[in-house]
Write a structure and sequence with these properties.
This protein has 13 helices and no strands. It is an all-alpha fold. The relative contact order is 0.16.
Length: about 300
């Protein structure tokens, strides 16, 4: 029992660190996007203010049980994904429960939150809810194609779904990282992650220039606070996953910050520079270039083993 308690304590500390790291990354993203538009942008502590303000409010409107389970499912997807990832390689304190799950389980958690939000939005009664659900599920479906192909290529190359073993196979220098040993799988994963993050040009799900802008107009108070927590944890968990699969993992927190920061910076720059696609444009793009690269990746990966 003592060992379990200690393990839970380290897991809670990991979630706390990753949450704050995600909040700072989001603040940085907003700052960079504002600078591109020749604006000053929000201060870095604005994310904390928004979070505290949301949790200080309560709502008395009832839309149905599933409507309010949507944010819970969303947060469960992000936290569950993080719980089964080795955050710091070869460090039992920050390995979480990675030895009890594999890449398949992490993928399930990755998609769990999006499906839960779709069910919740469908019960909201808003006439535009169906538009939001259609946008979200369309983008999730097409971005899953290159993302899944990339993860399958990783499993084929190393002959395992165990994330710890995948990281171990990439030790010994940066030339052993999968992004160098199998660059096509890395590029395919980048394509999938572009759609998964929901930044420009694939930000149609939230559509930040439109009114209304999706869940923030429907969910308020502490429910909005739950969504804000997930918007910090979930992207950080995806960055850690791809760092483990393609960049050889991290042996310390500074190494994790450096690798994930520059990885994340790429998506922020792409989102700030490129205009947003419409839903049908994004779908057509994903079933052309990323799909073609993914097919070539799966054909050539067995030759890399």
């Amino acid at each position: 029992m003592i060992e379990i308690g200690v393990k839970i304590g380290w897991v809670a500390l990991t979630i706390f660190i990753v949450l704050n790291y995600g909040l700072l990354l989001r603040a940085l993203m907003m700052k960079l996007v504002a600078r591109v538009g020749r604006r000053i942008g929000v201060p870095f502590y604005q994310m904390y203010i928004n979070l505290f303000k949301a949790y200080a409010l309560r709502t008395h409107i009832f839309h149905g049980v599933m409507y309010y389970l949507g944010p819970v499912f969303r947060l469960t997807g992000g936290v569950g994904m993080l719980l089964f990832l080795p955050v710091i390689y070869n460090d039992a304190r920050f390995s979480n429960f990675s030895h009890a799950g594999d890449l398949i389980l992490v993928m399930y958690f990755m998609f769990f939150g999006t499906l839960g939000m779709a069910l919740g939005a469908g019960e909201g009664g808003h006439p535009n809810a169906a538009i939001g659900v259609t946008r979200g599920l369309s983008m999730m479906s097409v971005s899953e194609i290159p993302l899944t192909m990339s993860l399958i290529a990783v499993a084929i190359q190393y002959g395992t779904l165990d994330i710890n073993k995948i990281i171990a196979a990439q030790q010994g220098g940066f030339l052993n990282w999968l992004m160098f040993t199998n660059p096509l799988a890395f590029i395919t994963g980048i394509f999938g992650l572009l759609g998964s993050f929901g930044y420009g040009p694939f930000s149609i799900i939230i559509a930040p220039q439109e009114t209304p802008i999706g869940p923030p107009t429907e969910y308020e108070g502490n429910y909005m606070g739950v969504l804000e927590l997930n918007r910090s944890i979930f992207p950080s968990a995806k960055l850690i996953l791809f760092m483990n699969l393609f960049l050889g993992g991290a042996s310390s927190w500074p190494e994790l910050v450096v690798k994930t920061f520059f990885f994340y910076l790429f998506f922020v720059i792409v989102g700030a520079v490129f205009p947003r696609y419409r839903t049908e444009q994004a779908v057509r793009w994903f079933i052309k270039i990323p799909l073609a690269v993914g097919i070539i990746t799966l054909i050539l990966t067995p030759l890399v083993k």
